[in-house]
TrEMBL record:
Its EC number is 3.2.1.21. GO terms for biological process: glucan catabolic process. Pfam families: Fn3-like (PF14310), Glyco_hydro_3 (PF00933), Glyco_hydro_3_C (PF01915). Keywords: Glycosidase, Hydrolase, Signal. It catalyses: Hydrolysis of terminal, non-reducing beta-D-glucosyl residues with release of beta-D-glucose. InterPro entries: Cellulose_Degrad_GH3, Fn3-like, GH, Glyco_hydro_3_C, Glyco_hydro_3_C_sf, Glyco_hydro_3_N, Glyco_hydro_3_N_sf, Ig-like_fold. Belongs to the glycosyl hydrolase 3 family. It comes from Chryseobacterium pennipullorum. NCBIfam families: PRK15098.1. Residues 659-728 form the Fibronectin type III-like domain. GO terms for molecular function: beta-glucosidase activity. It is an enzyme of class 3 (hydrolase). This is beta-glucosidase. The lineage of its organism: Bacteria, Pseudomonadati, Bacteroidota, Flavobacteriia, Flavobacteriales.
Length: 740
């Protein structure tokens, strides 16, 4: 039996190596037939003629001709079974008939859109996140797409940076887990399956740390910080077999990421042994000229390829400059062979050499358009992403038989906005999107009335609609206000210096509150906003992000208690912009503030509390959860032992519900200072009302490792605080000693 098993395992390994060798051999063979221009052609990516996020080549006819000549390896923003087939046919006219790769930003859903990514992260539900990407991949691949530019695994601690909406928030551990779930979802059973798309870990690296939260800005940080906070999600992605990487617009310590030999050559393709390929960000190779890092296109191309960029997205310098550079001996042909080889390998793995049209299938496309099951999933996922921030006197959930409800605010009847930024697959079919008004109307009793008033626009100073809104509120028993920031106010190039409600929305809220009617506030946003007045005066607040196709239904499910809120914040919410960056896993400093009142010569602002308005990991439920009986398997451990931690969580409230139980540690003393808390585990657990569950975690020395000042990654013996709780601010603590 054992022998048979070994034989099977052995031959399986043998087969894999053989299969891999076959692709390697095919790539080598193909490369040997290719001219220099054809090889460089594989390294060129152009955009189709929509959705530009940067300067674009306008001469579309010339691009079509270049495809026929084998001078283009990939197109982005070409989608649809018909369109992709048409482009692929052009590539099939080229001398060696090398198929094109079609890439697109499938960021939070495709035809069916899901909550913006930061909202998804608030679900802390890895299974649902993975499933959402499975659906996105199934829909996108049915539209002929081979490759998504996702997941964005940039850690971000600055909510002024608009792209926080596309990531998983401030924490490296949570961000890594979510990134892995997304890659698994996108790549499904593996490249080559018809419903899988290649994933892309972006933006390599540290894009989220742009100075001042201003998009595309410089990044300056220690290598230790880079390794400890920003690189782990990328390393995990590489280890998990993510098909591609995209580098980032920013420089890191003075060197543009696009040409950063240390991160792309030494780490990614060196010690991490990554075999996929790296695409530049849009135009980022050419942008090394304004960066002041390359004097012209030639130098930009040279530095980019030396720095490990394999594919040039839309800056055109590879095609125009690389052949010359190779011929004159400035760039070694081996670098071109390596880059083109990596790209061709993926095309083989995707099965495109067997059938270049295999993803362009009209029947599949039809099945994946407005797919009912996918929408049902989206509805549930939307509800699970909502975070309940405040619920005084249990004003929520609402009864469906409230006689008159008023929905007030600029987002009440929005349709397209609900998709959020980075939703590009549906264009004009707005009727498929459930507005908040429709979602609420669908669930209110037939005899109840739902009134609506817009009250104001999202982002101007016009108060002319206030009076009507106030009159509408006066007629209602309950007012639901829907405020926030416009859906296109977060996302790429959407940095904001003032992250309050835009326009006159807060003034509208104050006017409505004066009516004395109970007000429930729903906040629509792609980032943490600052809304202190609302927090202090409005009895119920839920953070609804941008929830996607089924937004209105997801919201109504929470409002009326069909679903119990279970989201928790993946980013700290600041009290003012002046407090940014505020994040839970900061250092203690030599003069920590003990409380919010003692501000004398301690690390504090003289005019502001140190803690955020709402902390990382925070979120309420309609029910109550009590934590008790935190038990550790031992208070003193040695070497490679395992620490088992258990805690009992009881649902003592009136509703069944889910709770995200969080495990943090603090390494009290180290050869470099350690954060006051570090997330090391979490579990989302469903507990029926009146019941309790025992939840278990385990820690090993692997979880205690950190980078020291020489970038050595190891753990140290000593004292540790072990903390379990319902948010980063509300934990129980036990101390242990762990000897190395
Ligand atoms: C963004 C990338 C995106 C690319 C293609 C760039 O501007 O930074 O994240 O994938 O455009 O649309």
């Amino acid at each position: 039996m054992k022998r048979v098993y070994f034989l099977l395992v052995f031959s399986a390994i043998g087969m894999n190596t053989y299969a891999q060798k076959t692709i390697d051999q095919k790539v080598t063979e193909l490369l040997s037939k290719m001219t220099l221009e054809e090889k460089v052609g594989q390294m060129v990516q152009y955009s189709g003629f929509e959705y530009a996020t940067g300067p674009q080549q306008s001469n579309s006819a010339a691009v079509l001709e270049e495809i026929k000549k084998g001078k283009v390896g990939s197109m982005l923003n070409v989608a649809g079974s018909g369109e992709t087939k048409a482009f692929q046919k052009l590539a099939m006219q080229s001398r060696l008939k090398i198929p094109l790769l079609f890439g697109q930003d499938v960021i939070h859903g495709y035809r069916t859109t899901f909550p913006v990514n930061l909202g998804q992260a608030a679900s802390w539900d890895l299974d649902m996140i993975e499933k959402s990407e499975r659906i996105a991949a199934t829909e996108a691949s049915a539209y002929g797409i081979h490759w998504t530019f996702a997941p964005m695994v940039d850690i971000a601690r600055d909510p002024r940076w608009g792209r926080v909406m596309e990531g998983s928030g401030e924490d490296t551990y949570l961000g890594t887990k979510i990134g892995l779930a997304r890659i698994k979802g996108f790549q499904g059973k593996g490249l080559g399956s018809l419903d899988a798309v290649m994933a892309c870990a972006k933006h390599f690296a540290a894009y989220g740390a742009a100075v001042g939260g201003r998009d595309y800005n410089a990044v300056d940080m220690s290598l230790r910080q880079l390794h400890e906070t920003y690189l782990p999600p990328f390393k995990a992605a590489a280890e998990a077999g993510v098909a591609t990487f995209m580098n980032s617009f920013n420089d890191i310590n003075g060197i543009p990421a696009t040409a950063h030999q240390y991160i792309q050559r030494n780490l990614l393709k060196g010690s991490w042994n990554y075999k996929g390929f790296v695409v530049s960000d849009w135009g980022s190779i050419g942008e090394m000229i304004p960066h002041g890092y390359a004097k012209d296109g030639g130098e930009a191309a040279e530095k980019a390829i030396l720095g490990g960029s394999d594919m040039d997205m839309e800056s055109r310098v590879y095609m125009t400059e690389l052949p010359k550079l190779v011929k004159e001996g400035t760039v070694d042909i081996k670098l071109v062979d390596d880059a083109a080889g990596r790209i061709l390998t993926k095309k083989f793995e995707m099965g495109l050499f067997d059938d270049p049209y295999r993803f362009s299938n009209e029947k599949r496309q039809k099945e994946q358009t407005d797919n009912k099951k996918n929408r049902e999933f989206g509805r549930e996922f939307g509800s699970k992403s909502i975070v309940l921030l405040k619920n005084q006197q249990h004003i929520l959930p609402l009864s469906k038989s409230v006689k008159t409800v008023a929905l007030i605010g600029p987002f009440g009847k929005e349709t397209v906005a609900n998709h959020g930024f980075w939703s590009i697959a549906f264009k004009d079919d707005t009727q498929r999107i459930v507005s908040q008004f429709d979602g609420i109307r669908n669930q209110l009793d037939k005899n109840s009335t739902l009134l609506y008033a817009k009250g104001c626009n999202v982002d101007d100073q016009d108060r002319s609609m206030f009076a009507e809104a106030v009159e509408t509120a006066k007629k209602a028993d309950v007012v639901i206000m829907t405020l926030g920031e416009g859906h296109a106010m977060s996302g790429e190039a959407k940095s904001r210096s003032n992250i309050g409600f835009s326009g006159v929305q807060e003034d509208l809220l104050k006017e409505i509150a004066k009516t004395g009617k109970p007000v429930i506030l729903m906040i629509n946003a792609g980032r943490p906003l600052i809304f202190n007045w609302a927090s202090d005066h409005i009895p119920a607040i839920m953070y609804t992000w941008w929830l996607g196709t089924e937004a209105g239904n997801s919201i109504a499910d929470i409002l009326f208690g069909t679903m119990n809120p279970s989201g928790k914040l993946p980013m700290s919410f600041p009290r003012t912009e002046g407090q940014i960056p505020v994040y839970y896993n900061h250092y203690n400093t030599g003069r920590p503030a003990k409380n919010n009142t003692d501000r004398n010569y301690v690390s504090a602002y003289i005019d502001l509390d140190n803690d955020p308005k709402y902390p990382f990991g925070y979120g309420l439920s309609y029910t109550d959860f009590q934590y008790s009986d935190m038990v550790l398997s031992s208070a003193s451990l040695t070497g490679n032992e395992t620490l088992n931690i258990s805690v009992t969580v009881s649902n003592t409230g009136k509703y069944d519900g889910e709770e995200v139980i969080q495990l943090y540690i603090r390494d009290l003393f180290g050869k470099v200072v350690r954060p006051v808390k570090e997330l090391k585990g979490f579990q989302k657990v469903f507990i029926k009302k009146g019941e309790n569950k025992q939840v278990h975690f385990r820690l090993t020395p692997e979880d205690l490792k950190f980078f020291d000042d020489t970038l050595n990654f190891d753990w140290e013996g000593g004292e540790f605080d072990i903390m379990v709780g319902t948010s980063s601010q509300n934990v129980q603590t036990k101390r242990i000693n762990w000897v190395k």
